[in-house]
Amino acid sequence: MVKKSWIVIGLCIAVAVMLSAVVYAEKGEKECSLSAAAQAAVKALFPNAMIEKSEMEEKEVKVCEVKVKDGNKESEVKLTGDGTVMEVESIEAVDTVPATVAQTIKAQNAEVKKVEKEVEYAQLKVVKLDTPVTSYEAEIIKDGKEIEIEIAADGTILKQEVEKKKDKDEKREEHEKDKD
């Protein structure tokens, strides 16, 4: 009888430890409740989309990252609590980007993994831009290396970065976390 009691106590402790680990892991992502102004700003950009998720990003100001789905297209909107849209990111097909951007990507003579469109409406100072700034990020594999290229809408390469092994591991972890 005493042996059974110790087994039950051990199982209870194990369950408590596992639940604590789950709660601690979930605290890493802070849910972001959107104000009416923020919701209206997202709806103005994506009138037919459903907001799937919003989480707080730690910046100099509090910024919500909202994932939306409009039909089959998924986008991420970053905005402040007062509804100021900072940027919108979406995955694009190479044949849908401006010809100048597509030419720059193709000129890399590499396998295109992903093309991401980023439209910046406000910068971190949260100063609303008179004209949105659009850029593209392409993840390519060239000579066995993963390279991320940031390209302006006119096709100019703004930044080129070879991903390090650690970056790949972090992305894999993020990808696996997103699946959950």
Strand order across the largest sheet: 1-2-3-4-5-6-7-8
* Structural category: alpha+beta
* Strands, total number: 8
CATH architecture of the largest domain: Roll
Shape category: globular
Q: Please trace the helix and strand order, writing H or E for each element.
A: HHEEEEHEEEEH
So what's the CATH class of the largest domain? Alpha Beta
Describe the sheet with the most strands.
8 strands, antiparallel
- Radius of gyration over C-alpha positions, nearest whole angstrom: 21 Å
CATH topology of the largest domain: Nuclear Transport Factor 2, Chain: A
Strand content: 35-45%
The N- and C-terminal alpha carbons lie at a distance of: 41 Å
Extract low-pLDDT stretches: 21-27
Quaternary status: single chain
Count of individual domains: 3
> What's the helical proportion of residues?
25-40%
The overall average pLDDT, rounded, is 80
Notes on the structure:
With 180 residues, the protein is of the alpha+beta class. The protein has three domains: 1-29; 31-83; 85-180, Nuclear Transport Factor 2, Chain: A (Roll), CATH 3.10.450. Helices cover 32% and strands 43% of the residues. It has four helices and eight strands. The chain has helices spanning 2-26, 36-45, 99-106, 165-179, and strands at 50-58, 62-70, 73-80, 85-92, 111-123, 127-142, 145-152, 157-162. Strands 1-2-3-4-5-6-7-8 form an eight-stranded antiparallel sheet. It is globular, with a radius of gyration of 21 Å. Mean pLDDT is 80; it is low at 21-27.
